[in-house]
Amino acid sequence: MPKLTDQYTTIPVTGGSLKFRRLDENFFRLEETLLDENSSKLDCPHKIGALFKLEGGSLISASVMTDEPREYVPKEKHPWESLSLDEIGLIHGTDKSSSKHNLLKDYEKIFLERFGRNWRNKTINLIEIGICNGSSIRTWARAIPNGQVLGVDNIKACTLLCRDISNVHLVHADATDQSLLDKVYPCHVIIDDGRHLVQDISKSLKLLWGILEKGGIYIIEDTLCMYNMNYIRDLENNLDVSEYKLERMKFIDTITKMVNKRIINYLQIHRNYFILFKS
Ligand SMILES: C[S@@+](CC[C@H](N)C(=O)[O-])C[C@H]1O[C@@H](n2cnc3c(N)ncnc32)[C@H](O)[C@@H]1O
Questions:
Q1: Which residues of the chain have pLDDT under 50?
Q2: Fewer CB within 10 Å, N- or C-terminus of the chain?
């Protein structure tokens, strides 16, 4: 086992090595994958930016939830108000930051346009489907300290995270089930970062659209997954491909009709995420 005492540490894997940056005594972030000279592929199912916890001398992925929550709580005090949304995301290790999906720089511009120049000080209520290790929930809570951040996850252990942050509220619920409505409140932003399957996205949208305030923003993330048959097959055992494709077309049809009827003011389709702006 390599010594994990330096700020950076490299661990060999089949085909190359993984370079981690130490965040504190327990947590590491995957910074780089380094391919060996003669190999064409490296054995690493994790993405750059993924969080890992050191347990019993081994680095264990903290990005995938198991029964036990593994969360990274930055020990250092940070001047959140003077940091960009992306910088806050990088500190917490969320894959929405420029370490991977690079969404936060876009969101910063979009939120500024929608909620005004001092949006970070406003009472913006945000709901995110998908807590996982809590890194994006922490990011939002630090970015909008006067707003409330509600996280929803169908894994109960995820809802035990972020207990040190007062403007976070986490609930155990299935974001595709009607009972979710008993646990949520009106909000200005909804982010769907759940299972990324079209039937889930569609059900959550139907459920939650009503609690989104006028002028609010509904973000659907990782929309490339809707078109990635390997990803979908991994989640759906008895996948009927034509049925799935039909569902996907129906969903696109639904949101188009919502625009036509001015229920959605306008719709932005970006690479890997959609944004629905409520009229
Ligand atoms: C991609 S992760 C969320 C990552 C997190 N938002 C972040 O950026 O750090 C997806 C999470 O959605 C949760 N999830 C999947 N399907 C769900 C559902 N139907 N209802 C609620 N949560 C769900 C999973 O348990 C998982 O923790």
A1: 1-2
A2: N
Predicted local distance difference test score (pLDDT) of residue 141: 98
Residue nearest to atom 27 of ligand 1 (CA): 132
What distance in angstroms lies between residue 192's CA and the mean position of ligand 1's atoms?
8
Specify the number of domains making up the chain: 2
pLDDT at site 76:
86
Residues 20 and 117 both lie in one domain? no
Question: Which residues span the domain enclosing 43?
Answer: 8-61
For residues 122 and 213, state if they share a domain: yes
132-171 per-position pLDDT tens digit = 889 999 999 999 999 999 999 998 888 999 999 999 999 9
Mutate to test the pocket of ligand 1, among 128, 131, 172 (most ligand atoms within 8 A of CB): 131
Phi/psi at 15 (nearest 5 deg)?
95, -5
Tally Cβ neighbours within 10 Å of residue 12: 11
- Spatial strand order in the sheet of 27-35: 8-13, 16-22, 27-35, 51-55, 58-61
Name all residues whose Cβ lies below 6 A of ligand 1. Answer: 65, 94-96, 128-132, 135-136, 152-155, 158, 174-176, 193-195, 200
pLDDT of 1 reads 45
If one counts every other C-beta atom within 10 angstroms of the C-beta of residue 265, the result is 13
- Mutate-to-test residue for ligand 1 from 88, 92, 132, highest number of ligand atoms within 8 A of CB: 132
Domain finish residue from 61, 89, 106: 61
- CA distance between the termini of the chain: 56
pTM: 0.89
